[in-house]
């Protein structure tokens, strides 16, 4: 079990949160010009690093706000 | 006027070591607006204005809780929605209330960090709740569809504190 620091509510139990995947995946500026491969890459392909990973979380059982944090995927240590 | 039915039907369990009782039909108003000084601005706090408690739910969201029948002396701008039917309130009293809540809730409710007026949105026995510390009792605001489950869980979980009460 992780304690996740919500920027509003402070450290709370992992079970109060919903995981939102990789952070900073920008919506394509002009989706109609993308090939199927590029579109599939945007939709389905995400980084899977061993180490620091910037990801989105939502404090669903608390203030219901989305936020980003950096988690180490090896140790579950949360850096920011 | 149509007959009102509360989710727990005015449930009371006064004979246990923790007194558990529903407070039905409290007026609840959800407020979404820009923060201003008339509202509690810190996470997990509430303020009292007359007989209305205003609970911090988010950086731009509050819940005003007051007596049944609505209250007219407050005026807020922004998105103001009556959500009274969404939740019911369970009042908990007794020396073991914190111990009871700790059995199903991972949030720190120690008096040092959760004094009078503190409120928290968390889960209790897997049900999403808002817990408010008042002077002489705790209020647990729970969604109507979770209320029966939670009341049953509270009664069951509170039984272990009856052991100490034996002569």
Automatic annotation (TrEMBL), chain A:
Pfam families: SoxD. One of its GO terms (biological process) is tetrahydrofolate metabolic process. InterPro entries: SoxD, SoxD_sf. GO terms for molecular function: sarcosine oxidase activity. Signal peptide: none annotated. This is Sarcosine oxidase subunit delta. It comes from Actinoplanes lutulentus.
From TrEMBL, chain B:
This is Sarcosine oxidase subunit gamma. Gene3D superfamilies: Heterotetrameric sarcosine oxidase (3.30.70.1520), Probable tRNA modification gtpase trme, domain 1 (3.30.1360.120). It comes from Actinoplanes lutulentus. It comes from the Bacteria. The lineage of its organism: Bacteria, Bacillati, Actinomycetota, Actinomycetes, Micromonosporales. It holds the Pfam family SoxG.
């Amino acid at each position: 079990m992780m304690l996740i620091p919500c920027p509003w509510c402070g450290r709370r139990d992992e079970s109060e949160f919903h995981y939102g995947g990789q952070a900073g995946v920008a919506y394509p500026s002009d989706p109609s010009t993308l090939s199927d491969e590029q579109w599939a890459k945007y939709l389905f392909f995400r980084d899977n690093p061993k180490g620091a990973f910037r990801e989105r979380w939502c404090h669903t059982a608390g203030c219901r706000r989305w936020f980003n944090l950096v988690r180490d995927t090896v140790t579950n240590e949360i850096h920011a | 006027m149509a007959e009102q039915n509360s989710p727990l039907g005015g449930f009371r369990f006064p004979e246990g070591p923790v007194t558990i009782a529903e407070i039905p039909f409290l007026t609840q108003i959800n407020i979404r607006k820009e923060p201003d000084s008339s509202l509690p601005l810190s996470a997990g706090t509430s303020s009292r204005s007359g007989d209305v408690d205003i609970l911090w739910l988010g950086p731009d969201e509050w819940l005003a809780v007051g007596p049944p029948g609505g209250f007219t002396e407050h005026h807020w701008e922004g998105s103001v929605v009556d959500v009274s039917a969404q939740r019911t309130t369970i009042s908990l009293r007794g020396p073991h209330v914190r111990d009871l809540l700790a059995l199903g809730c991972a949030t720190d409710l120690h008096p040092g960090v959760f004094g009078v007026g503190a409120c928290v949105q968390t889960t209790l026995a897997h049900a999403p709740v808002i817990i408010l510390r008042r002077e002489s009792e705790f209020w647990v605001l729970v969604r109507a569809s979770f209320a029966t489950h939670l009341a049953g869980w509270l009664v069951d979980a509170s039984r272990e504190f009856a052991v100490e009460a034996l002569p």
